[in-house]
Write a structure and sequence with these properties.
Helix 5 links the parallel strand 4 and strand 5. With 197 residues, the chain is α/β, with parallel strands linked by helices. The chain is built from seven helices and five strands. Helix 4 packs parallel to helix 5. It has one domain: HUPs (Rossmann fold), CATH 3.40.50. The chain binds iron/sulfur cluster. Iron/sulfur cluster binds next to helix 4 and helix 7.
Length: 197
């Protein structure tokens, strides 16, 4: 097995990437660094779910790396609702910390569970992973885990894991709320049309 440091954004998103990487012969160590998650209670809840799963189910080591919330406010928050630039800055901050830890601890390979979620900007995230791995002399393991997302959803429900309904930052919480309202309005409108028809 080949040691690999796996940046994990949360427990549910870790299930399938861990399985897929182990199938490929990697031996993942989980790395938590997610200063994007707000509020702090939500951050701690997601970390707790990940730690519990890693210990009781996956039996994987977890490194809790830096969670520099002030840096997130400085580097990502100023982009506000400009999602493309905000998420790039957010990926960069988290992946840089994961790469720093990987280099410090002697890992050669680095990957991220962010690549399982269809809600993430996959290309942007992959670009940042490649760029930062290069900066730290690491080999990026870029995989498109998104086809595994439905299975991750099913499995995490079965395990009774807490599943958040927004990505993590306060902007994403507001965006998700708007999206849910738009979907509700569309359903209501479709229903009303049906009655009229
Ligand atoms: S939506 Fe997610 S990836 Fe993008 S900035 Fe917010 S927490 Fe980071």
């Amino acid at each position: 097995m080949t040691p690999l440091l796996l940046h994990a954004c949360c427990g549910p998103c870790s299930l399938e990437p861990v399985r897929a990487l182990m199938d490929e012969g990697y031996e993942p160590t989980i790395c938590w660094t997610n200063p994007n998650i707000a509020p702090v209670e939500e951050h701690d809840k997601r970390l707790g779910v990940l730690l519990d799963w890693a210990e009781r189910v996956a039996h994987l080591p977890v490194i809790i790396a830096g969670d520099d919330r002030a840096a997130w406010e400085r580097e990502a928050a100023p982009y506000g609702f400009d999602r493309a630039d905000r998420c790039r800055a957010c990926y960069a901050l988290r992946l840089e910390e994961a790469c720093r830890v990987a280099a410090e601890q002697g890992f050669e390979y680095i990957s991220t569970t962010l690549a399982v979620s269809p809600y993430q900007l996959f290309e942007t995230c992959s670009e940042e992973l490649v760029r930062l791995a290069g900066k730290y002399g690491l080999t990026p393991v870029v995989r498109d885990f998104r086809p595994l997302y439905p299975e991750a959803t099913r499995e995490s429900r079965e395990l009774g894991m807490y599943r958040q309904n927004y990505c993590g930052c306060r902007f994403s919480a507001a965006e998700a709320q708007v999206e849910r309202q738009i979907a509700r309005d569309a359903r209501k409108a479709a229903k009303a049309m049906g009655h009229v028809g």
